[in-house]
Structure formats: structure tokens, C-alpha cells
């Protein structure tokens, strides 16, 4: 391919990729399992809270999960809560017509179940403080959501390819860290949806490589280098994310090994031919950045192991 290759316009990409969207939509509809949030909530464990019902206010002793798991559950639910912002962002990119529009609505309908089931579960089991949750929900949702990639189609699809897998990993590990078998079962059910969504976007971007490999490579590199979780605007997110990372629920190692690399390998980005000069530069930048993440992850793991050793020694 010539180093002077011309990038395809957004409209050209949307038109050329629509048959792939239709194919992946049909595959998704044939694969997705119907499930009901109310079946994953242990309603018999519920009791009235303080307020108009005259029940008992929440205390930390009510919760069966660790403080670290409570932080992760709060962040996960607040992230799911912001669905209206995500819907608006993705609809602006994909549009509301044809297979693109059908996917947006289906994706939104499936995602809505996640906040429903997690909130019901946490409220009934008193796993986290419902007052703190509601106050933080109000703050977070009033802040809105603005995608870092704007309305760029390829960057948008690249972002959600990684983000859906990152959310799946976070949900599954949060369930495991909760120490509550029912909570783990519920979070696994949510994570299965996220995995199917990841496959849709991953396959769609894989097709984009066939349409314009160099432009797609540049989009992926830009997204990986600027990647942030969609809940990054949650009040106190940095502090919360450190707690989550220290607990091993989601950290740089998981981000590199279990999110970025599996998707990049599936696309075959480091074996791909047919790139122009900018595509090759983008691939080089990507490789260098992945090495930086790997190095930073190793340093974090070492520091975390040292902290845990000191804590264990103090506890003896």
C-alpha cells in the first residue's frame, strides 16, 4: 500500500461496515441468553431501612463483603448507572438507522439490566451503604459523560472493544473478591453480557482492518495510549482505583495481560501487512507503549508484594 494512501471518510466506513454490523448483530442475537435480574437477588435477606419505613439504617457490620470489595462494587455500579451518557455517545457515532441503530438499542437494553440487578442485590443484602451510593450516583450522573475519542467511529469501536473486556474482568474479579457466593454468581452473569458485547465490537474492528488497515491501526494506538475506564469521573476515582488495584481486582497487570493483549493478538496487529508509513509508525508506538505498561505493571506488583509482606509481618 502506498505511503500516500487516502483515509476513508466516516460515512464511507459506516456504509462499508454495515453488512458486518448486521452479521454480528444476528450472531449476537442467536448467542445471547435471556435472563432476569430478579432471579439473581436473594430477596428473603432484605429488611426495611430507616426513613419512611422506620427500619434500620445501614452500618458496616451489615455487609458480608470486605471494604475493598465494597469500593469495587460501588465503582462498578456507578459506572453502569451512567448508561444514558454512554447511549448518547455511541448513538452519535453509530446513528439510529439500519443495523447500526438496531445494535445501539439492543446494547442499551442489555446494559440496563446490569445496574438493575447490581443495585437490587446490593440494597437487599446491605452489601454497601445505600445513602453513599445514591449521593455518589447523583454527583456522577450530573457530571455527564464525554468520550475521549469524540465522535470518531474507529476510535469509538476500538475503545469499546477494550472497555467491554475490562469491565468483564472487573466484574468477575469483584464478584470473587466479595466472598459472597451469590454476589459472585450475580457478577458472573453480568460479565457474560460484557463478554458478548466485547466480541461484537472486536469483530467489527477486525473487519475495519480489512477496509483501511492503517487508519484502523492509528485509531487503536491512540485509544490504547489514552485509555481510561468510563467511570473515571466518579468522585474520588483515583483513590478508589488504587484500593481496587491493591486488592488485585483490576490493576495494570490485568489491564495489560487480560485486556489489551488478548484483543490485540486476536486482531493480529503485530503480524499484519499492508500498512502505510503512518500505520507502521502507529504500530511502533503501540509496541513501545505496551512495553511501558508491562514495566509499570511489574513495578506495581513488586511494591504491592512488599506492602503485603510488611502487613503480614505486623500482624504476627
UniProtKB/TrEMBL annotation:
Its cofactor is Fe cation; Fe(2+). Binds 2 iron ions per subunit. InterPro entries: Fatty_acid_desaturase-2, Ferritin-like_SF, RNR-like. Pfam families: FA_desaturase_2 (PF03405). SUPFAM superfamilies: Ferritin-like. It comes from the Bacteria. Fe cation 2 binds at residues 111, 164, 194, 197. CDD domains: Acyl_ACP_Desat. One of its GO terms (molecular function) is stearoyl-[ACP] desaturase activity. GO terms for cellular component: cytosol. Fe cation 1 binds at residues 80, 111, 114, 194. Keywords: Fatty acid biosynthesis, Fatty acid metabolism, Iron, Lipid biosynthesis, Lipid metabolism, Metal-binding, Oxidoreductase. Homodimer. Belongs to the fatty acid desaturase type 2 family. This is Acyl-[acyl-carrier-protein] desaturase. It comes from Thermomonospora umbrina.
Amino acid at each position: 500500500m502506498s505511503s500516500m494512501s487516502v483515509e476513508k471518510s466516516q460515512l464511507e466506513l459506516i456504509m462499508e461496515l454495515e453488512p458486518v454490523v448486521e452479521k454480528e448483530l444476528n450472531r449476537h442475537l442467536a448467542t445471547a441468553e435471556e435472563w432476569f435480574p430478579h432471579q439473581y437477588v436473594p430477596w428473603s435477606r432484605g429488611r426495611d431501612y430507616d426513613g419512611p419505613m422506620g427500619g434500620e439504617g445501614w452500618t458496616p457490620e451489615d455487609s458480608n463483603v470486605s471494604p475493598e470489595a465494597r469500593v469495587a462494587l460501588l465503582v462498578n455500579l456507578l459506572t453502569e448507572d451512567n448508561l444514558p451518557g454512554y447511549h448518547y455517545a455511541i448513538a452519535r457515532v453509530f446513528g439510529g438507522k439500519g443495523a447500526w441503530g438496531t445494535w445501539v438499542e439492543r446494547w442499551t437494553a442489555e446494559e440496563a439490566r446490569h445496574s438493575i440487578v447490581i443495585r437490587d442485590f446490593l440494597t437487599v443484602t446491605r452489601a454497601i451503604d445505600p445513602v453513599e451510593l445514591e449521593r455518589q450516583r447523583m454527583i456522577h450522573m450530573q457530571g455527564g459523560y464525554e468520550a475521549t475519542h469524540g465522535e470518531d467511529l474507529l476510535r469509538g469501536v476500538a475503545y469499546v472493544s477494550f472497555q467491554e473486556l475490562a469491565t468483564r474482568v472487573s466484574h468477575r474479579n469483584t464478584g470473587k473478591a466479595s466472598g459472597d457466593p451469590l454476589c459472585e454468581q450475580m457478577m458472573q452473569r453480568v460479565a457474560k453480557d460484557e463478554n458478548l458485547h466485547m466480541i461484537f465490537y472486536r469483530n467489527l474492528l477486525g473487519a475495519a482492518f480489512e477496509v483501511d488497515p492503517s487508519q484502523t491501526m492509528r485509531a487503536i494506538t491512540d485509544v490504547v495510549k489514552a485509555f481510561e475506564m468510563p467511570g473515571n469521573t466518579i468522585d474520588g476515582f483515583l483513590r478508589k482505583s488504587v484500593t481496587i488495584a491493591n486488592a488485585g481486582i483490576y490493576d495494570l497487570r490485568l489491564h495489560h495481560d487480560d485486556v489489551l493483549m488478548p484483543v490485540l493478538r486476536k486482531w493480529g496487529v503485530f503480524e499484519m501487512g499492508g500498512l502505510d508509513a503512518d500505520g507502521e509508525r502507529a504500530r511502533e508506538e503501540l509496541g513501545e507503549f505496551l512495553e511501558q505498561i508491562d514495566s509499570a505493571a511489574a513495578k506495581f506488583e513488586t511494591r504491592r508484594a512488599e506492602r503485603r509482606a510488611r502487613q503480614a509481618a505486623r500482624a504476627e
